[in-house]
Specification:
By secondary structure, the chain is mostly helical. Helices cover 62% and strands 2% of the residues.
Length: 196
């Protein structure tokens, strides 16, 4: 396969020749090579590597989308800086590849157990629960801690109905639990093989 041609992960062997500048193609070469490796199954890929490919692809899609938008119209008699058609083709290829990688990540997460026996996908839900509750408690504690201004002694006094320090302590405990879950998930990312 020529170096300028890449094989999309989920395309069933269809080859694409991106219409991009050489520098732009080289910038996404790592993702394309990894997708090629995944398709050919030359090596076992870790979940963390697939997560990196997903993140890189999403950033690249956003960048290409902005460039295509900027080049969607030009003044009469001038040429666009970049070919919008080529950029759109590359965006489409990346979305196919990214969808395929995400599907494999999801299958891996629902099939992988952490050392305590919990599914990785369940750990995500638990981690998000800790984050949401922590943020809520911190917001309530902040509202309870707002200074109250009375201009006249005859004005009604505002009193706190919650213990802000207790709420902040509980929020810190939840943050600690979330960090522990994050560490377990990160460990799994670099020890678990990506599922087909």
């Amino acid at each position: 396969m020529r170096s300028s041609t890449i094989r999309a992960a989920a395309s069933g062997g269809t080859e694409y020749t991106p219409v991009l500048e050489t520098g732009a193609f080289e910038a996404c070469a790592f993702k394309s090579r990894l997708a090629e490796i995944l398709v050919r199954r030359y090596i076992t890929v870790k979940l963390g590597e697939a997560l990196k490919v997903r993140s890189d692809n999403l950033c690249r899609i956003e960048e290409l989308s902005q460039r295509a938008t900027l080049n969607a119209q030009v003044q009469e008699g001038t040429k666009p800086v970049a070919d919008p058609g080529g950029l759109i083709a590359e965006i489409e290829r990346l979305t196919v590849e990214t969808t395929w990688v995400i599907q494999r990540i999801n299958r891996t997460n629902v099939a992988t157990r952490l050392p305590d026996g919990t599914l990785v996908s369940d750990t995500f839900a638990e981690r998000e629960r800790h984050l949401a509750l922590r943020n809520t408690l911190r917001a309530i504690a902040k509202a309870a801690s707002e200074p109250q201004t009375r201009f006249l002694r005859s004005e009604l006094r505002v009193i706190r109905t919650v213990d802000a320090s207790a709420l902040l302590k509980r929020a810190d405990e939840l943050a600690q639990k979330r960090r522990v879950l994050d560490a377990l998930i990160q460990e799994a990312n670099w020890t678990v093989d990506l599922h087909d």
